[in-house]
Amino acid sequence: MLDGCTPWPEEFAERYRSAGYWRDETLGELLGGLARSHPGRTALVAGPERWSYAELDARTDRMAAGLHRIGIGPGDRVVVQLPNIPELVALMFALFRIGAQPVLALPAHRSSEITYFCEFTDAVAYVIPDVHVGFDYRELAAEVTARVPTLKHVLVAGDPGDFAALPLDGDPVDLPRPDPAGVALFLLSGGTTGVPKLVPRAHQEWSYSGRAVAEACDYGEETVHLVSLPLSHNWPLTHGLLATFHAAGTLVLAPGPSPDEAFPLIERERVTETGLIPGAALLWMEAAEWDEYDLSSLRRVTIGGTKLQPEMARRVEPALGCRLQQAFGMAEGLCGFHRWDDPQDVVLVSQGLPVSPADEVRVVDEDDNDVAPGEVGRLLARGPYTVRGYYRAPEHNARTFTADGFYRTGDLVRLLPTGHVIFEGRVKDQINRGAEKIAAEEVENHLLAHPGVREVALVGLPDEVLGERSCACVVPRGTAPTLAELAAFLRDRGVAAFKFPDRLEIVPRLPLTPLGKVSKKTLAGMFH
Ligand code: J2J
To answer: How much is the ipTM here?
Structure first.
């Protein structure tokens, strides 16, 4: 396994291989197999493009050749920041074939995050769109390349300006086979620390996570899955791209989750499945009342990423005319979905059942003792697609993983006797803002650099649409800053806008716990 990554103990690896969870197949080979077994089936629909599996496979090969020609090789890291365009899918598979590793950034990230990803992973290339939602990524790339001199290539999908175009073509070359047990890509962790953590996912285990989701969700060739969240998140990648491809179904990419963007695609492509965060589901339910689009092809909508309240869950099926399923999961691995025959009351109150029979979950108290069945406790997870460590983070790993390899999710849950998981809260210092995760410490560190901020604590407050929104509780130095000033300050520092505080509270001091730590619970209670 790559330096800086934690391997599975051989005993577990052997168990997962012999049970058939891990296959001797790279992600590039998975696509090659589909191109042979289902050449004419539509794999991908995005914008004006409609590619069969054979076409996606051929485009992937040509792109891999083009990237190889400019010198991108096995083990090279490539920071990829593309919106939901078809090139993103071809690029990911091209890099998988080369054995180069995409580091999947979100379109919302800015220079602070991108510079960090490039430096931390020693990236050789950075791939961007030209302009997306009014933002010119070439300007961002100019800033990043000035700060990261080791970056050799900026590749643009679209008009390259001063940079090079993402190579779409090249004469196919023979590439050495990447190790199926090796790292295929890096996902971003929701994070709790000052700097984001990267999750190294290997070909065979990450591929299995998609296969396990496909099985749990009964995907088949008739599945047409619409992804409207940014595809670079683990959830749309596994539930959308991987699960759909494992079933030889069709993946449809929408630019965003608004009904205006998604409903015409559902009607035109006869979409059967899609994943939504609760806030977007709310908009869909409202729009479905008066919108004329035919949504009758939808077999099921899956809601997750942040907690769906049972009162809202109850309204989904009547409003959208299809089944509801909930999903939970994490870039680190463990994910759960409801099954088609789960009873209605279980679907309304729980967030799903882990997808693999080999998933191991424990619910423990703060001393790692199992709580009584049905009680609330901290969720620990281990299994055939849950990583054993973050990339290059030995100290953090020692805290975040138990000695026997369970990941401390930082989530508070209880389990139904059936094993279904109910999310009850969090112990990690993170804000879940419409399923975009914000590590409080990262934002606090930025805000502490503001001359008007002596002390700061970022806390999550409940929000009907987003689930949570962020509130900066600031002890000022001199004249207190305004919310707009803090946002402008963070923008200047190149921080993604979803991390800007939604609210500012000026406080004389930060309340402390008996142990002398800032009590975020007290703060959240004060401004609730
Ligand atoms: C409450 N909190 C949830 C839910 C995730 C499937 C689905 C989601 C993700 C994801 C994913 C939640 N109710 N239904 O990767 O494969 C919170 C938990 C969790 C954190 C992980 C997947 N579903 N969460 O959201 O890495 O706190 O993955 O630990 O972005 O989201 O966030 P992320």
So the answer is: 0.99
